[in-house]
Write a structure and sequence with these properties.
The structure is a homodimer. By secondary structure, chain A is an alpha/beta fold. Chain A has twelve helices and 20 strands. Chain A is about 30% helix and about 30% strand. In chain A, the strands form four sheets. In chain A, strands 3, 7, 8, 9, 10, 19 and 20 form a seven-stranded mixed β-sheet that branches. A six-stranded parallel β-sheet of chain A has the order 13-12-11-14-16-18, sandwiched between helices. Chain A has a five-stranded antiparallel β-sheet with strand order 4-5-2-1-6. In chain A, helix 6 links the parallel strand 11 and strand 12. In chain A, helix 5 packs across helix 10. The longest helix of chain A has 22 residues. The first copy, chain A, is globular and about 75 Å long. Chains A and B meet through strand 17, strand 18 and helix 10 of A and strand 17, strand 18 and helix 9 of B. Strand 18 of chain A pairs antiparallel with strand 18 of chain B.
């Protein structure tokens, strides 16, 4: 028998006020009645991804965070540096629901065939406002998971799997034949290792610790370069010569890594050059920055000729580029391989209230490689 | 009566030796007999462009330059830092002729109709090895200048005019509608002002001195921002709002200017935004670095969402992109407008020997905005 549907449910909301404070709180919001083409999903699992952090914390200085409220309804307040307030002008004084993706069970459906077909099914959703007990949305936004898939298994169907697939697709679209990936021991990085192995795409993994080298080799990674080793630069060039990679995806963003990769690519290309190319190799070398683990400025040495580019890469913009049909093809592959290629692992499952404890925030806010947290909005208080 | 053709002519050559020294010297080389489809050009004017510097000086440290040889045949020697030697491995111990472009008179022609048609004509050439008294090359590489054009007027037909046209063409190819240009008071920058005025392309000029603001306004520039003014950032945003420019060409390369431009573009775009875009504007903002007046690393703040790119831009790669027919169309326009839109101005005309005096090198090596030097290979010694 399906659980009874309450009149209201909890939802995690983030508000940045004009007085330069951030407030995170749990609001009790009405559980909506699904319209004709809509379904109501009881959300049972929603991951905390790095890409959720921007909306949750904004530009607040979380070292100033204070705990308020009650254990069941915690409230977190933090200061936003005045000079950064302008950058979030458009969201001031609005309570914004958070959580890009998640999974749950359809507990009520509108009258349309598409909605009715999902009743009782476990579905994955990329729709925002997923750090909530219930989410009502159009049926076509739901990805029905294969029979026997738990919500916790399907919670991360979109952000990481589609990003990994997006990297490989971007490689093909832009005429490259191999990839470089930084922060490669991350959940996403491990997924990319499996995907590239499955698809025969040569991949150069860059990590920062010896243990991460072992981890990735254990998953079948062939090229793993440890940026903490003194031999990093030459190791990287060797791997670039062997793979021919001229496209990199960089999760760190700041510092010199993107530039080091371009320098390595140019060195690898010049190995095969037969005569002096006065302006450097004519082969285009590209680094896409898709994260900002290092918030310092990106530093580009520009010692790699003229055929280079560095730019931002964002999943929604990539999905726009390939169009709805292209995106649907990728989503269907994710659903088929959610327990294998695209499986995610979590270090912790927490409740909505626990997500607003300062200790938790300090932990998931760190974005430590491999530490991934799942929110279960129906797990009791704390 | 045409001047007599000698058996040999002078040619400026640059050699980087394995012992980590650069040598610049004048070699006496045979004047070739043109083949069937070739012409022999008596070079009378060849500009020193920033893009020539790489081949002439390589990575040598010119503060170590020593003068040798004789006044008529000067030799300049300088040290190359050992760590940079690897970057020029492919050119070691080869005497390379220099000079990308120039103009002169066809004094001898092969038997083909195309070659014969050029006999006695003043032609412009982009072919390398132009810092020489004579240059033999295929007729199809010559751009015949309109009757009454002096070699000194046609010497800079390619690098600057095609770069200016390339910027406007790149803008159209990549879907932008206005341009930003830095170091905008340069010879190229002045040309771009005239070109954009002629073609109705909104242009934001960035300069560093008050005098340069006046200079460009005098040429009809509408938007000129002085980066030395305290109001620079807000002036820039205003100009970006008015023009809608989302593409910039940056001659400086190093430092924070490219990033400041992207920040300004994002601010300009967010002015018209109606709701909070959590990942920033979706409009792609691009800066192409086409020079390196500032050799320090490029520093990117990445506070402009995800739809941004920074990359190298190089004329030969652009010409490859648009293909031979596209390039020919641009070249013909340059020839037609060489005395108006694409006119260049020089501060000095020097001989080949004078080009190898330490004083001259210090002067043209500085690449001061607006100071452009023309080599006349037939001007007597010194």
């Amino acid at each position: 028998m399906p659980p009874e549907i309450p009149a209201t449910g909890l939802q995690l909301q983030s508000t940045i006020r004009s007085d330069a404070t951030l407030e995170l709180a749990l609001a009790e919001v009405p559980v909506p009645e699904p319209g004709e083409g809509e379904v109501l999903v009881r959300v049972e699992a929603a991951p905390i991804n790095p890409s959720d952090m921007g909306l949750v914390f904004g530009p607040a200085d979380m070292t100033t965070a204070r705990q308020g409220g009650t254990p069941e309804r915690p409230v977190v307040t933090a200061d936003v540096p005045e000079r950064l307030l302008e950058s979030v002008r458009a969201r001031l004084d609005q309570a914004l629901p958070c959580g890009n993706e998640g999974a749950g069970v359809v507990v009520k459906a509108g009258s349309s065939d598409a909605a009715q077909a999902l009743l009782g099914k476990t579905v994955a959703i990329l729709g925002g406002a997923m750090y909530a007990q219930y989410r009502c949305l159009p049926a076509f936004l739901c990805l029905a998971l294969p029979e026997g898939t738990l919500p916790s298994e399907g919670a991360s169907c979109f952000v990481n799997p589609l990003t990994a697939l997006g990297m490989v697709e971007t490689m093909k679209l832009e005429g490259h034949e191999a990839l470089v990936h930084t922060a490669a021991a991350s959940n996403l990085g491990q997924m990319l290792v499996k995907l590239c192995n499955a698809d025969g795409v040569p991949l150069v993994n860059i990590v920062r610790k010896a243990g991460q080298v072992e981890l990735l080799r254990g998953l079948g990674a062939k090229h793993v370069c440890n940026s903490s080793e003194p031999s990093f630069e030459t190791d990287l060039v060797e791997a670039l010569v062997e793979t021919g990679a001229t496209l990199a995806f960089d999760a760190t963003g700041g510092g010199k890594l993107a530039s080091q990769i371009l320098t390595g690519m140019e060195k690898a290309l010049s190995r095969s050059a037969t005569e002096y190319a006065r302006y450097g190799s004519e082969t285009h070398k590209q680094v896409y920055v898709y994260g900002s683990l290092d918030r310092t400025p990106t530093q580009l040495e520009r010692n790699y000729g003229a055929a280079w580019g560095v730019g931002g890469w964002l999943l929604p913009l990539f999905l726009k580029r390939i169009g709805p049909a292209g995106g649907q093809k990728l989503r269907e592959r994710v659903a088929r391989e959610i327990k294998t290629t695209f499986a995610s692992h979590y270090t912790k499952e927490i409740s909505l209230a626990e997500a607003l404890e300062l200790d938790s925030i300090a932990s998931y806010g760190r974005q430590a490689t491999g530490a991934k947290v799942l929110i279960n909005p129906h797990k009791p208080g704390r």
